[in-house]
Amino acid sequence: MSESTTTSGLRGALAARRLGRGPLAAGSWIVVALFVLVAIAGPLLVTADPTRNTADALLPLGASGHLLGTDDLGRDELARMVHGARPLLLVAFLSTGLAALLGVGIGMIAGYAGGKVEWVLMRLMDLALAFPSMLLIILIVSAWSPGVGSLVTGIGTALAPGLARLARALAAREAGRDYVLAARLGGTRAPRILVQEVLPNMAGPMLAQVVMTLSIAAGFAAGLSYLGLGIQPPTPDWGYMVQAGQEFLYRAPRLVVLPAAATLIFVVACNFVGDDLRDALDPKGTR
Amino acid sequence: MKLPTPLIELEKLRVDFGGSGGRRVRAVRDVDLTIYQGETLGLVGESGCGKSTLGRATVRVTEPTGGTIRYLGADITTLRGAHFRQTRAELQMVFQDPFGSLNPRRTVADIVAEPLLRARRTPRPEARRIVDDLLDQVGLGREAGTRRPHEFSGGQRQRIGIARALAPAPTFVVADEPVSALDVSIQAQVINLLADLIRERGLTMLFISHDLGVVRHIADRIAVMYLGEIIEIASRDDFFAGPAHPYGEALLSSVPTLSRQPRRERIELTGDLPDPAAPPAGCTFHTRCRYAVDRCRTEAPALTEVAAGRQVRCHFPLLPVKGPA
Q: Which residues form the ABC transporter domain (chain B) (predicted)?
């Protein structure tokens, strides 16, 4: 029995090298890492200005000086792709962070407190879930001016209830454990019990779900900027690039295919990473 | 012997589960019980009779549905806030499950220090000293403090649990089947350690167990519980000389003996514990009692004093002590 406790949890999963097993899982981790790397360091390596217009519009792939050609305004497509990773990943990560903060916080309080507090909080979450997410996000985003702030707020708020549900279930399970009762007997107050006793013991499954949420957030972020509710031009952004490229779908399909494929690959890879985390952290999978 | 002073007084204590609608399980039903300063009261009964719930309700980790809990004469049933946390630091508990009762993510020293830091607001350096001493006293050694629970065996974990319960210098400890999850070979060590520490400090203990052998070893008085009710209270010697309730008689007859005396008649209880959501009418034990008559099926007996310090909930208590059956 004691072996299972040593190998459960994130630390155990890392120690037992249970993460990234199999080509799909390993590949997904690498892809996500690459995207993050490109978003952070890419603009330092690809020095071409993604917003500088030139007379050389719609140059093809492999044109001299423009590896991926240029778009309809003669801007370097490679630079736009590399710079475009930043807003997507930034919005995806920040909104997932906001969703995790709200969702885990609300869910944990509901699950631990139980009773009326739980009822009120979870019915609020149900109410939020009853709206189609995209509609809710558009509602929130259009209440502000489009930009990173409103995107993060909208996506984060829309994704929080799903996480809250899981957090509630996990926290409710922990709340009945003897060590939580022992902490109460020792005079530890509820906020400290939540942070010190409950949260660390639900972190594993919660983390897997949060990473899954990351892929959904990325999908929403791309979708919104495609609709023009995201990062505003001329800042390059994959979602908007897909929309702008549609006009030239037959003459230069790469203008749509490249940003769309990049978005898709990132979303799918995040999903597999979440899957892998969940499998690695699942105590049943270890026995 | 000094006059016994009540430390904990339970009055009509009731714990229901399952809310108002539907099946309401009455786990603890109007229990009156007094625990005197310095004694160890053994609470026995079969699984599901409500003894753990009673123990938990006594220190309010499970909130009672009704009745009152008095500690040193003061009603603590509805006490809240800082004052409650202060008071309850004096009421501690050793849990049954050595695996579930320690947070796997924290070090042993942190676990044991927690009640000192929170309820007692002991400064950290002093708490450290107390924790080190406690870990020595429970036989783990202060080096154990830096390790985590999963590095210890079940018996060692119970020692950690005992150290934690004793950390805030309590006056009363509920031990909820503290050894039932352990190998028989180490049960005695843990029981003796607990008994010694309780005695040295002059603490009062509610010792919950279904093991009469263990209870005989450690308890001064015995309370027998059946279907959420106390059905017999007696001193240990009186009880083991001959229980007054037919249920106690059956329980005792199930304990194997090593003596050369003619074997006591083995009384087998048939059937299971009745559904606590729908207890039988009359005496709750009549469905399994071999002495049951019509009166038992209709009229519920009250807990009545049949001899000095001896209470029984039965229309026909088995008194005076009979000869070998």
A: 8-252
d(CA B116, CA A19): 39
Q: Contact at 8 Å (CB) between A166 and A105?
A: no
What tens digit of pLDDT does each residue of B173-207 get? 999 999 988 888 899 999 999 999 999 999 999 99
Pick from A167, A241, A201: nearest CA to A232 = A241
Q: What CATH number corresponds to the domain at position A206?
A: 1.10.3720.10
In a domain, A4, yes or no: no
Beta carbons of A182 and B99 less than 8 Å apart: no
Q: Does A187 contact B at CB distance below 8 Å?
A: yes
Residue A257 lies in a domain: yes
Best probe of the B interface among A116, A173, A174, A179, by most B CBs < 10 A, is A179
Please tell me which residue of chain A has the smallest CA distance to B152: A2
Say how far apart CA B181 and CA B159 lie, in whole Å: 13
Question: Could you identify the residue written with the tokens 């203990």?
Answer: B205
Prediction ipTM score: 0.88
Q: Which residues of A touch B151 (CB under 8 A)?
A: 2
pLDDT digits (tens, 9 = 90+) for B221-262: 999 999 999 999 999 999 998 888 999 888 888 777 666 665
Q: Name the one residue in this structure whose structure tokens are 């509710």.
A: A229
Question: Rounded to a whole number, what is the largest CA-CA distance in chain B?
Answer: 67
Range of the domain at A253: 31-44+61-286
- Domains: count for chain A: 1
* Neighbouring C-beta atoms of residue B324, cutoff 10 Å: 8
